[in-house]
Amino acid sequence: MKLVLFALCLTTSAFAQQPADPAATSCGPANVSLHVHLDRHPPAPAPPLSGKALVYFIQQSGAPVNLTYPATRVALDGAWAGAIHADSYFSASVLPGDHHVCAVLHSFAIGTLTELAHFHADPGNTYYFRTRLFGTQGFVYLELQPVDRDEALHLMATDPLSITTPHP
Of 71, 70, 126, whose CA–CA distance to 96 is shortest? Predict the structure, then answer.
């Protein structure tokens, strides 16, 4: 009887220690729809707010014509922070500490693609992430990667600012 009780305790603790699905805690609610407006004359990038960090999300399509390029929704720590469409960017202010990023691209033609990342934010610092969509016949891949500051500023110099509003 003691052996059975011991085995039951081990099994229960093993199930309790399994990590949750990172997408479930990183991505925003599925029932939220976002509308993207592109500001082709954005203000100059501002420094992070006092005691916070700033993170930029840049979408690089790589195609000269972006009319059919789907929008990518970006979440921080389980809440939608914004969306990027075509070659555009937006920023979000974050508290210092560990953060989880989720990028979701949904298209009727290719389905839903999800990419996850995490980073540690220090106050006063700025972080940059880039999404890119790669594809060949029968295969489509969404990439979410940290990007170097110089590359990010180069992309942002000609890209419009993405302004996101919830869509009823």
Answer: 126
Residue 17 neighbours by CB distance under 10 Å? 7
Specify the pTM.
0.83
Distance between CA atoms of residues 68 and 109, nearest Å: 10
Long-range (24+ apart) CB contacts under 8 A made by 16-25 are 22/100, 22/116, 23/102, 23/114, 23/116, 25/77, 25/78, 25/100
Q: Which of 121, 118, 76 is nearest to 95 (CA)?
A: 121
One digit per residue, the tens of pLDDT, for the chain of length 168 reads 444 433 434 344 444 454 567 777 789 998 888 999 999 999 988 899 999 999 999 998 765 544 467 889 999 999 999 999 889 999 999 999 999 999 999 887 778 899 999 999 999 999 999 999 887 767 788 899 999 999 999 999 999 999 999 876
Q: Which residue matches tokens 């609610």?
A: 29
| Rama region for 108: left / alpha / beta (φ>0; ψ in -120 to 50; rest) | alpha
Kindly state the tokens that stand for 127: 């972080």
Residues 6 or more apart whose CB falls under 8 angstroms from that of 109 comprise: none
Q: Compute how many other C-beta atoms are within 10 angstroms of the C-beta atom of residue 59.
A: 29
